[in-house]
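Design job #97: recover the sequence.
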């Protein structure tokens, strides 16, 4: 029966791929300039954007300047405007060398909300960042904080939407808000299945953000089952499409003693530790751009190489705890295996507790599944694209 199921699944996947190849190309919100440029004329405009905010071959900032839009400032999220800073690294305010527009960092180490002076400098905010659909990926958090600030100062918000490369499923525990942090801000699952525009609508509609004036410029020819290959790496340690698919599951190693490959050519596509037993694969994290001081720097780590796992198999497995559970049992360190970050990433107590109790990945998944189904029902009110 299992072989028959795999054959049917393979045929289904090939059919989906064929359908995708014949589909119209996806057009991101930023490319639909007729939907938002008229609303910017005669107004003071700021953008919340980074290196992924491309309009065809041109960056959004360059396009706005070329269109004579009065662009007064650029807000930059985690990793900076150019996308090269480490995770959580403090980035100073600066000026865009090409256009002379001020860059106001939301990750300067002082505050993640702009000064009143910055907020009074504009009256409409354009948001354009490529997200990857995870609760602990911080771009949506920067957007929601800016929505709150815009509500306070009477500024409009226009989100230029982009596809979610992990938007084809919803999985993982709902954030217990006692664990609200810089890697989790809303009561949503780890894999939420929403685009940035849909998150903005849901945050406003559910009262998770303040009531700003909000417009979303939709993508064209996109559904949540589309396999959207990102044209630009969204952050330094997600360099491949495969790493983006594995990211929901392997990011949990950030909350353990293990390395997930930061400081190698394949971050988020492996895991390991110097004491990992019975492994033939090894890697050594090194200091490099985007990973200046990675965990276990300079130490040979033994572990598991996930680069050969098929993309569709990764997607079908969803938010997969098997990798973390494997490393936990292999290292046999008990509770010392985990750090505080593990609770912030999973967003609940019970995942760690159940691993310590020896529960399987399937048993733990059964705990969050009912609340995921409730969330999927709630989220349908805010979907802009076919499921």
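Job complete. Output follows.
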């Amino acid at each position: 029966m299992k072989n028959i199921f795999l054959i049917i699944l393979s045929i289904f996947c090939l059919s989906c791929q064929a359908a995708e190849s014949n589909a119209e190309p996806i057009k991101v919100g930023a490319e639909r300039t007729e939907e938002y440029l008229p609303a910017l004329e005669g107004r003071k405009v700021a953008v919340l954007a980074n290196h992924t905010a491309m309009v065809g071959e041109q960056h959004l900032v360059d396009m706005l300047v070329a269109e004579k839009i009065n662009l007064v400032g650029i807000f930059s999220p985690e990793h900076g405007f150019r996308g090269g800073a480490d995770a959580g690294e403090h980035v100073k305010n600066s000026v865009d060398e090409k256009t002379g527009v001020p860059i106001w960092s939301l990750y300067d180490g002082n505050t993640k909300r702009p000064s009143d002076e910055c907020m009074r400098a504009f009256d409409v905010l354009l948001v354009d960042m490529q997200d990857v659909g995870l609760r602990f990926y911080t771009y949506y958090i920067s957007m929601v904080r800016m929505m709150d600030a815009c509500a306070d100062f009477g500024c409009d918000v226009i989100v230029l939407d982009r596809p979610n490369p992990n938007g084809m499923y919803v999985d993982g525990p709902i954030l217990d808000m006692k664990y609200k942090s810089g890697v989790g801000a809303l009561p949503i699952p780890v894999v939420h299945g929403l685009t940035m525009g849909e998150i903005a609508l849901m945050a406003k509609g559910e009262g998770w953000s303040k009531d700003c004036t909000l417009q979303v410029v939709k993508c064209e020819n996109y559904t949540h089952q589309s396999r959207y290959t990102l044209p630009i790496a969204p952050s330094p340690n997600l360099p491949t499409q495969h790493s983006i698919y594995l990211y929901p599951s392997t990011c949990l190693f950030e909350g353990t003693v293990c390395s997930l490959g930061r400081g190698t050519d394949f971050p988020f596509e492996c895991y390991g530790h110097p004491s990992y037993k019975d492994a033939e694969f090894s890697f050594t994290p090194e200091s490099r751009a985007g990973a200046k001081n990675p965990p276990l720097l300079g130490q040979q780590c033994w572990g598991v190489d996930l680069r050969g796992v098929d993309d569709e198999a990764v997607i079908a497995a969803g938010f997969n705890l098997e990798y973390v559970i494997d490393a936990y049992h292999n290292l046999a360190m008990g509770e010392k295996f985990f750090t505080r970050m593990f609770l912030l990433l999973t967003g609940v107590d019970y995942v760690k507790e159940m691993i310590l109790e020896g529960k399987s990945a399937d048993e733990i998944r059964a705990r969050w599944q009912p609340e995921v189904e409730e969330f999927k029902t709630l989220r349908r009110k805010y979907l802009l694209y076919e499921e």
